[in-house]
3-deoxy-7-phosphoheptulonate synthase
Amino acid sequence: MENKKELRHWLNAFGLEHPLVIAGPCSAETEEQVLNIAHQLKDSDTTVLRAGIWKPRTRP
């Protein structure tokens, strides 16, 4: 099943008056790393925190 909802509709669901900011590490190496970044972003304008744990690498 594909999600064909337009990005604009998805973003409008947030009801934001400013740009959506998604922040976080490209690849989460440890729980401590993700929590540290979350604490640093807590007081920023970041809307979404994301971290990949199974990101395929292009280089070793």
